[in-house]
Amino acid sequence: MESRFRFDYYYYGVESDQFSFYRVPRALIKDSRFKGVSSDAKLLYGLMLDRMAMSMRNGWLDDENRVYIIYTLEDIMEDLNCSKGTGVKILAELDTGKGIDLIERKKRGQGKPTLIYVKKFITCEKVSVSEGAISESQEVQKPEVQKSKNWKSGSTNAELPEVQNLEVEKSGKWDSRSSKYGH
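RESULT FIELD:
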């Protein structure tokens, strides 16, 4: 007999803001570069971004000050509730050699867990593949990063669009289909 759950309770007011969430970047869903990436791989990348923040707090940096994570296949299998084969497939989908190049794995030897470097999904180099050889094309999408005195932070040289001051009314009924208040 199949067991089902019944969820009869709704969120009221501030109750809806009581949980912590994993964040999957919107670009992974909307950007055409990631259309061929599975939902499981996108979710795993979001989980890896969360672990990266923890690694930074723990000071897990290599000699080049790159943040790495340790996320074993067993942990991935548990978090995604998947088999070993599926876990391997999802990792390969994100990996440098076989996949989309959002992560790079560095093996450290027998008995030591693999280090995973999570790469930025925003910047990339456009490459073309011809007869088994990969060569860089003319178009490169890498913003210049200005290093600050504190190596942990940086800022891009790109100018940000000016933010407008918008008047906000505090009463009235909001109509989500337009930018005006409804009746």
